[in-house]
Amino acid sequence: MIRTLTVDLGGTLVPVDRTSTTATLARLLGLDLPRARALMGELAKRRRCTPGQLAEELATRFTSTNPARLHQVLKRARDRATAPPLYPDAAPALDRLRSRGLRLVAVTNSLGCTVPADPVAALGGVVDHVVYSADVGATKPDSDLFRHIEHATNSAAHELVHVGDSARSDAAAALACGWSAVWLDRTGANPHRCPPGAAYAATLADLPRLLEGDG
C-alpha cells in the first residue's frame, strides 16, 4: 500500500522558465548546457549558499565573468522561488490524494542559493514537506536522495511513489530504488518514452485514477 507520494517541483508542480537559471549561467560563463549542469551539480545543488557566495565562486573560476551580473541572475532566481506559481492541476489533484491519507512531499534539485529561508506558502498549501537536494547533499537521480526520503518519512520503498517530469531523474531513478513511479509528460505526446514499469500521466489530474486503491 502506498503511504507517501513524492512530487518533483520544477516542471511538475511549478512551471519552469523558458530559459532556466542554469542556461542563463551557461551563457554568461561561456559553457555549453551539459557542462553548466554538471558544474551546478558540483557547486550548488548539494549545499546551501547565498547568491553572492556562488557568484563569487563562479567569478573566481571564470575570471572574465562579471560577478555582479551572476549575482543578479541568482538573486532573481531566489526571489522567484519564494513565491512560485503552481500548475492549475496541482492543488486539486494533491488535495484528493491527501484526502485518502497520503503523505505528500515535494522534492527538488534546486540550486542551494535559491532555497527560500522560510517555508513557501504556496507549497505549504499542497504538500506536507519540501525536500531540497541542498539540504540532503544528494541530487536526483542519486539513490541517496531517495533513501533519505525513506528515512525521513519512515516509509519502506514499496510504500512510496514518485511523480516527476524527467524520465531518467524522476521515474527511472525511483524505480531503481524499488519505489513506484509516475512519469508526467505534460505534452501528452510521448507515451513511448515512459520508462518500463512506470505509470504514464499527461496531467496531475490523472494521479487519483492511477493510484486508485493505493491511498
Automatic annotation (TrEMBL):
InterPro entries listed in its UniProt record: HAD-like_sf, HAD-SF_hydro_IA, HAD_sf, S-2-haloacid_dehalogenase
SUPFAM superfamilies, per the entry: HAD-like
Entry's Gene Ontology molecular function annotations: hydrolase activity
Transmembrane segment boundaries: none
Keyword Hydrolase: yes
Keywords associated with the record: Hydrolase
Superkingdom field: Bacteria
Record's keyword annotation contains Cytoplasm: no
Segments forming a coiled coil: none
Stored Gene3D superfamilies: HAD superfamily/HAD-like
Protein name: HAD family hydrolase
Natural source organism: Nocardiopsis kunsanensis
Lineage per the UniProt record: Bacteria, Bacillati, Actinomycetota, Actinomycetes, Streptosporangiales
